[in-house]
Amino acid sequence: MMFLSDALVSAGHLLWTLDPRVVAAAAVSLKVALVSTVLAAALGVPVGFAVAARDFRGRRALQVTLNTLTALPTVVVGLLAYALLSRRGLLGVWGLLYTQSAMVFGETILVTPLLAALTMGVISGADPRVEQTALTLGASRLAAAFTVLAEMRWGVLVAVAAGFGRLISELGVALMVGGNIRDATRTMTTAIALETSKGDFAFGFALGLILLTLALGVNLGVAIFAPRR
After folding, report:
1. For residue 35, what is the domain's CATH number?
2. What is the distance between the alpha carbons of residues 207 and 117, in angstroms, rounded to a whole number?
3. Which of 60, 70, 109, 171 lies in disulfide reach of 189, CB 3.0 to 4.6 Å?
4. DSSP letters along 69-90, please?
């Protein structure tokens, strides 16, 4: 018990003094997670909306595929991203391996199916009369779709927040294509894995507290601004 309390006290000191290692790892994690979440939302939300709102051949198979891809292990996505971005890979000419851009690439692949599946679930619960009313009033198909999306915006926002929560705590992709380079690609999760393996538990606890605080902040923000039902 003393070990745990001592580690937590040391972690508090690192946070209070804004230890450069802690700040650098937190900044990289936040930047990569935010950019990846925005890109994944730009890709996943329209796909999820289209699958939920339209009936077409192969729809059921696509739904099953999206739901299955939400369970992809991060190390598998990391391996795929590494294979694509390595020097002999299809995208190797970009020279992105072991950069923050590589981490964004891999994490976007990881969370896009999740956002698509969650959006699909949200839009499936929309009142069909919303789109029908918009069309009756002369709106185009695209405008009617945006009307439905606006009506369900808080559910979609919760889905995006869930995607951010998964990415801010992601380890496999960041480690495999980022390389855990200090002050460049070292995130909070890769730093925790490295420092705790060396016995620096205080550093790991400090970063763990930041992770929880960021996740709590995002979810509190959604809860505060979401309309009461």
Report:
1. 1.10.3720.10
2. 30
3. 171
4. HTT--HHHHHHHHHHHHSTTST
